[in-house]
Design brief:
7 helices; alpha+beta; 5 strands; Heat Shock Protein 90; 5-stranded mixed beta sheet; single chain
Length: 308
Amino acid sequence: MKRGDGMMDKSETVLHEFKSLVCDLCGLALASKEEFAEFSRTVRSELDDVAGLTDKLAQEETAQEAFMNELVSKAERMLEIEEKIQELVQSQNFGFKIITAQEEERRRVSREIHDGPAQAMANVIFLAEVCEKLIEIDTARAKQELFELRQQVRSCLVETRKIIFDLRPMVLDDLGLIPTVKKIADNLKERTEMQIGVKLSGLQGQQLDSRIEVSLFRIIQESLNNVEKHAEASEAQVLIDFQHDCVTAIVKDNGKGFDPGKKYQDSESFGLLGMRERVSLLQGELNIDSHIGVGTEITVKIPLMATN
């Protein structure tokens, strides 16, 4: 064999092996491509499933959030309804208390008239009859009985005026709020020997609407009545401040105090309920600051534009 022929055979062999290797590589490439495509399809399918589950979870989360929001809204609505029911129950109880208070007030006035002016007038009639019989028999005795008769009439007049004042003080219509408050303070001082002061501040001399005057008077009157009946105080003070847009009244004492929350729920709290109702009707504010052993301070603030 010639040397040239050997080199040719060797080259052909290498070329054949290279072609075979290329074919094998191409086959592997094609096979890998198909496997990769299949793998890609599988991964894409799994990703689609994951995306679907994610969307479903997101929708469920949104639905759950909407459900929770609706639940919270309904719970808040239920609380509002419960508060309304409590207000209605309290309003109904307040109505019952008003009726009861009216009957108690009528009973009190009836008893006061029966035990006071009515009894005094019966005594006046009796003394007048005695004087009529004595005038021609014993002039001196008749004069003495007439003196007693005059005292009885005066006492009857005082009792009658007191009843009228408690029902509706004429001085409130005639002279206004301040003289009336000073009058009830003086009366309380005479009955109890308690030290009571009435102080004014601000723009004094303002003409208040009659509804404001009556409400302030009743609140101050009720507050002082509570001081007399329950506080066991030695001192009390009434402060009234007049401003352009509001009037403020404060009644405070150095008595034994009480728990405002508990007192507001007690059966004896009609006075406090009445205060709140009066202030509410005039769009005002009522604050009761009291502590056991410290005393009580009741503050009422009424806007002057409320009556407009």
